[in-house]
Amino acid sequence: MDIQMPEMDGFEATAAIRDKEKQSGSHLPVIAMTAHAMVGDRERCLAAGLDDYLTKPIRPDELSSLLARYLPTTSTEKVS
């Protein structure tokens, strides 16, 4: 699959990824990252098929927590 920005926004790219997943049976976590956080944005992202939402400026504790949720673990080491 060839997804190029800016021909496609994040919502369109996520829809294309989710369509491909229907055929493959796999799931790729998609995380929104934005500096323009408005009331309702998180819900809009989740409704569009994104897995999670992160706002800028990035807070290290929130990023670490998000990565721990979505990265496959191969050891007992904590993401820091």
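That was protein one. Protein two is written in the same sequence-then-structure order:
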Amino acid sequence: MTTAESRGPGRPEADDDVVLHVDDISMAFGKVQALSNVSLKVHRGSIHSVIGPNGAGKTVLMNCINGLYRPQRGRIWLKGRDVTLVSPHRRAGMGLSRTFQKIELFGGMSVLDNIRLGRHIHLRSGIIAGSAYVGKTKREELRARKFIEEEIIDLLEIEAIRHRTVGMLPYGLQKRVELGRALALEPEILILDEPLAGLNLEEVEDMARFILDINEEERWQVTCVLVEHDMGVVMDISDQVSVLSFGNLIAKGTPEEVQQNPQVVEAYLGEEDLYATRA
């Protein structure tokens, strides 16, 4: 049997509050065990952070969640549906969006054009209507333009650079553009893979504010899965934290619970880093 039904236990108990359920997944590359029986539940409207040292399996886990990798064991449930064998673009159509650890933008295109690419999943008009730019195609384009220019660009405070070529922008602004492209999909769940990496203190504070706005503002209310090394931000803004070490889930709970877990201190944080606060 090759269908999803052969991949493990049956459908989990219904819980409308759980929008993402990673159920006992394992992933290996040759002899390297990247993930070993990892499970986690992400609740609607939360910020759920995944932390761990380099090589812990965080990005591999994110790649499994959005469909770039297919785990060799276990299942992944998105809004109550088994998506273990579902392609990345179909998961995107279900409301799952993502930013990447390394910026994946088109450097020769403008800020606006890069963000607009995130709308492709919502385009429904056919070839004929598209070539004529009438009717449904025109309405789709006008709605997309209004959404991007009046909401995303305003939220991320990038009005002044909207027509600039992305490749000529500072790294911190490129990070905002990538976030804008992910938001153009109008996601219900947003994976943020190290959004603060390489940013200075002011840029970190701005990005943390954007993440909170995306999660909390009534217009957005996006559930966020955050992979991050900045423990000050993680502990400040997360509702739940899961900790990976060498592909194993060693702890999960509230930031306060994780801070007090001896395994986490030993494997990753250290006393000094764990209890440090941002100035």
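The radius of gyration is 19 Å. Keep this in mind for the problem set.
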